[in-house]
From TrEMBL:
Protein purpose: This is one of the proteins that binds to the 5S RNA in the ribosome where it forms part of the central protuberance.
Protein name: Large ribosomal subunit protein bL25
GO biological process: translation
GO CC, any one term: cytosolic large ribosomal subunit
Biological source species: Candidatus Sungbacteria bacterium RIFCSPHIGHO2_02_FULL_53_17
Amino acid sequence: MQQLQAEKRLQLGRRAGALRKTGALPAVVYGEGIPSQPIAVKYAAFVRVWKQAGESTLVELKVDEKPYTVLIHDIAYDPLTSRPTHADFYAVRMDKVLRVTVPLEFIGESGAVKNEGGILVKVLHELDIEALPADLPHTFPTDLAKLAAFGDRILVRDIVAPKGVKILASPEDVLVIVEAPRSEEELAALNEAVSAPVEVKTEAEIKKEAKVEAEAVTETEEKK
């Protein structure tokens, strides 16, 4: 289990901005029967643990040496830099079923994409599940090598959930599919129908960019 050190935080509201300038991340820990408690963690340590644990793996959080078993429950991001600006830690009860979101981990390579020029369409990137904290999976590995021809798809029912894990999506929901490549005429028609979009970052894109930054921070820390 990943471990993260924290300390009680006195800087609240706008004063939290000064805390961030010191290399710390404002956060809060709470849970069933646990009053909300403002804390601070080192930013570099947080992104390193977050990279490994994500939001579906248990973390041991020590607040002034008092341990809590937590999930990284929610993260706020700077809309311009995509850097985390605040984190929520949810202290879990090991005997209580939780509902969390687990990311899909796409592995392997589709023959239809590699050899036939097919277009890989990832319809879903994560699945909602229910499980006891000790049974929570980190990811759901999804093997793209199964996609050998145009039209091949991977459904929710193809995911083998670990014991004690209930996937909440419909078994017939599509996770990923391979489509035939578009012709030049289809691409031209598509370009005419769609005007140039205004770039607006979605929450998923912000998370992805923040993950990339987390990896960069980790690599920098490891080189020191």
